[in-house]
Specification:
This protein is α+β, with helices and mostly antiparallel strands. The chain is 28% helix and 28% strand. The strands form four sheets. Strands 1-2-3-7-8-11-14-15-16 form a nine-stranded antiparallel sheet, covered by helices on one side. It has a three-stranded antiparallel sheet with strand order 4-6-5, with no helix packed on it. A hairpin with a 2-residue loop joins strand 2 and strand 3. The radius of gyration is 21 Å and the shape is globular. The N terminus is likely disordered. Bound molecules: adenosine monophosphate and magnesium ion. Magnesium ion binds next to strand 11 and helix 7.
Length: 341
């Protein structure tokens, strides 16, 4: 992906407010790539020399390289996966121990639909090697026997976590792809809360969006939800005030097509195949980045009936776009969602 970065300070917005003596925040905008996805930032700050956007990018790159990536040999997840089969286990950092605890909670509550031990199956499908629609004509489906073998090396019930020491059995592999962007939103929120000059921000990392604070004109944040059948178009908009996390999981985000059948990147642990719950896209709205991302993946696999129950257990709102284009949402989501005309 072409790397580019631009910071546009809207100078007109830096003028002093009449009478009050307070600076009106400037808007800083940037588009770049990090964590294998596009990061779009709009930050409102009274510091017109703010390098907040660059610092947030650095923070995301560090998160990927030092903590979460399964493919970078400097990350903690790499070291954890390399420890598979070790009798002495692996002592997790406090932040990874906390993440894993939360993952195990969603695994339990989703009855195994969300499972960060799907690494061997995700690897076999070569999901990281796909971009939407790429590898058409060259991709060969995994053989059933290999898939069965990979599935035998999956399952969070096989993990042992004693205090912060993780025992990962031989052949198993953690993959935090389903929560990486959500964790990123939580880290960005921590950063924004510490910078007293930042008055508002809307930041998206792939399918996950964080809203924070408010715009100088007091208007609400607008977050568009893509139409899975035509991702450049929108099925509607969420109108939000203050801090929220919004994550979407969709079958259009990463996939390959073989003989006219689309194979996407969200795997049902019960079959080892892409989830087939009749859903094309799921959007979850909560205050917490990790949860929004974990639940959007889990709800995609569970489908509307069970997914709605799961989201409610965590106090989250959820919207499903079914494969036939129909929309179903939790009652609480209706307050925020306006469908496209
Ligand atoms: P998302 O786009 O947030 O729904 O996450 C999808 C990513 O999560 C995939 O690219 C895989 O890396 C990983 N994944 C696939 N299936 C599962 C699953 N059942 N549970 C947890 N992670 C999964
Ligand atoms: Mg997710």
């Amino acid at each position: 992906m072409k790397k580019f970065f631009c910071v546009v300070a809207v100078c007109a917005a830096t003028v002093f407010c009449c009478g009050c003596g307070e600076k009106r925040p400037a808007k800083i905008q940037s588009v770049d790539t990090a964590m294998g996805t596009v990061i779009q930032q709009s930050i409102y700050t009274t510091d017109e020399l703010s390098n907040g956007a660059e610092e947030i990018l650095d923070l995301l790159r560090e998160l990927e390289e030092q903590e979460l990536s399964r493919r970078i040999d400097t990350s903690e997840i790499w070291a954890v996966n390399a420890s598979a089969g070790n009798k002495e286990g692996y002592m997790l950092s406090p932040q990874l121990a906390e993440v894993l605890e939360k993952c195990l909670d969603v695994w339990k509550q989703s009855e195994g639909a969300f499972d960060v031990t799907m690494g061997p199956v995700v690897s076999l499908w070569d999901i990281d090697g796909w971009a939407a629609g790429e590898r058409e004509g060259t991709f060969v489906l995994p053989e059933d026997e290999l898939l069965r073998d990979a599935l035998e090396h999956c399952g969070s019930e096989k993990l042992q976590l004693n205090e912060s020491r993780l025992y990962l059995p031989e052949g198993m592999m953690l993959d935090l792809g389903a929560v990486g962007k959500g964790i990123a939103l939580d880290r960005i929120l921590e950063y924004l809360e510490k910078d007293e000059k930042i008055t508002g921000a809307i930041i998206s990392a792939g399918g996950s969006v964080l809203t924070f604070g408010e715009k100088p004109d007091g208007s609400d944040w607008k977050v568009s939800i893509a139409n899975p059948a035509e991702p450049s178009e929108s099925i509607g908009v969420l109108t939000l005030a203050g801090q929220w996390c919004i994550s979407t999981s969709g079958d259009y985000e990463r996939y390959v097509e073989v003989d006219g059948v689309r194979y996407h990147h969200i795997i049902n642990p019960a079959t080892g195949y892409p989830a087939d719950s009749g859903v094309s896209g799921v959007t979850v709205l909560t205050k917490d980045g990790f949860l929004s991302d974990a639940l959007s993946t889990a709800c995609f696999i569970l489908g509307p009936e069970k997914g709605t129950v799961l989201a409610a257990q965590y106090g989250a709102e959820v919207l499903f776009v079914n494969r036939d284009g129909s929309i179903r949402m939790s009652d609480g989501m209706r307050k925020y969602f306006q469908g496209a005309k």
